[in-house]
Amino acid sequence: MIGYHDFLPTPQILTNNGQTVKLTVSKNATRERLPYIFGATLKQNQHYEMEQLHFHWGIKNNRGAEHVLNGVRYPMEMHIVHRNVAYSNLSQATQHEDGVVVVAIFFHLQDEHNEFFQALASKLAGVQWARTELPVNMSITLMSLIPSNTDVFYTYKGSFTTPPCSEVVTWIVFATPVPISFRQMNTFRVLSNGEETLGDNFRRLQDIGQRKIYIRRLYSAFSNKYNDSRLNLTNLSWFWL
């Protein structure tokens, strides 16, 4: 995970498209390289650059995430969508089975604000209505939005969760949720899809079928010796569930 500690280029664009809230980097932003990932079960020498991030959440606290972990469905899940840089754009990448990697992050609720998440949550009022977008200049990093503990995650070959649900996605799902406050969660629940409150925008749970799901565990001795986020996806121990 390279560049996750760096501030995203500005301006960013926050969009309510009537189905979700999405954050992208403006095409007019300084064209520095965006955060990217490689390694793990991905093919050698393939790099995947961040395209956008978006959210799925529930109207109630007992639902919202698109993955269920150990019987728990968290109230919100964030997806950081990455494109294989071998393809010129996301549309082209979606035509290839190695085209896309999505990093999924769960959120759980607590009384206290998450100060790092507040930079984003405070901007949502500007896109309350469907089909609105807002240029923003947030000093925000991807690392501030993902769990501090990234030692354990699951990965599998799957599909997009929105139509046409193409089977071109490698999923990376972090096991540790990120805490946000009830008030921060509610900033999503006052958004509109044009007719009613935007929410419950998650796909129903799908059968695993013949998919192989792998879990990566980082041993503490290795972690202490190599405390570097770029190693998080490489040269570690994998277990087939």
UniProtKB/TrEMBL annotation:
List the SUPFAM superfamilies hit by this protein, alphabetically.
Carbonic anhydrase (SSF51069)
List the Gene3D superfamilies hit by this protein, alphabetically: Alpha carbonic anhydrase
Q: What is the lineage of its organism?
A: Eukaryota, Metazoa, Ecdysozoa, Arthropoda, Hexapoda
Q: What family classification does the UniProt entry report for this protein?
A: Belongs to the alpha-carbonic anhydrase family.
Ranges for the Alpha-carbonic anhydrase domain?
Answer: 1-217
One of the entry's Gene Ontology molecular-function terms is:
zinc ion binding
SMART domains attached to this UniProt entry = Carb_anhydrase (SM01057)
> Under which name does UniProt file this protein?
Carbonic anhydrase
Q: Name one GO cellular component term.
A: cytoplasm
Q: Which InterPro entries match?
A: CA_dom, CA_dom_sf, Carbonic_anhydrase_a-class
Species name: Ooceraea biroi
